[in-house]
Amino acid sequence: MSNPYLSRGPVRDPDMLFGRTHELREIAAFVAASQSVSIVGPRKIGKTSLIYQLMRPATWPGLGLGEDNLFIYLDCETLGEGAHADIFEQFAAEIAAALVERGLPPEPALAAAQTKPTRLALEGAIRKLNQRGLRIVLILDEFERLSTNA
């Protein structure tokens, strides 16, 4: 079988992603246990495609993930050279956008974290969301780019 992930962008159509059930279940087990997990491998093997599938609400019941998870996708390619404040502001903005996308009420602490973007402000906003019963799941695509930021 040929590799469907070569020479194209990430697979967004769930019907085109196949053969990854074991990997999805393994990643979901880490997410459910509030553990970090890395998807590592060579380019064009479908890592981002796997992430998109994990973030699809329709897949959550089969993976043992509940509606309390709020998945936040960040492409770290653009954050590799940003200042700390810029990065914290982007994280807060993406979390706020995910709330809107899910039809959930906004969190004022996120607006404050965007106005005054610090690690403490972002952590405070995440604590407020946790108190609302939401589990924040940060999906950091191209993380190696962010990890090189001094």
The number of domains: 2
Largest β-sheet summary: 2 strands, parallel
The oligomeric state is single chain
Percent of residues in helices: 40-55%
CA gyration radius, whole angstroms: 16 Å
Q: Count of DSSP helices?
A: 7
Q: Element order, helices and strands? A: HHHEHHHEH
β-strand number: 2
**Helix/strand class:** mainly alpha
Straight-line N-to-C gap: 42 Å
Strand content: 5-15%
The rough form would be described as: globular
Give the neighbour order of strands across the main sheet: 1-2
Please, what is the average pLDDT?
88
Low-confidence stretches: none
Give structural notes.
The chain is mainly alpha-helical and 150 residues long. It has 2 domains: 1-66, no CATH class; 67-150, no CATH class. The chain contains 7 helices and 2 strands. The chain has helices spanning 21-32, 47-55, 60-63, 84-101, 108-115, 119-131, 143-147; strands at residues 69-75, 135-141. The protein has a two-stranded parallel ribbon. α4 runs antiparallel to α5 (108-115) and α5 (108-115) runs antiparallel to α6. The longest helix is centred in the middle third of the chain and has 18 residues, at 84-101. The radius of gyration is 16 Å and the shape is globular. It starts with 20 loop residues before the first helix and ends with a helix. The relative contact order is 0.14.
Briefly characterize the structure.
This protein is mostly helical. It has helices at 21-32, 47-55, 60-63, 84-101, 108-115, 119-131, 143-147; strands at 69-75, 135-141.
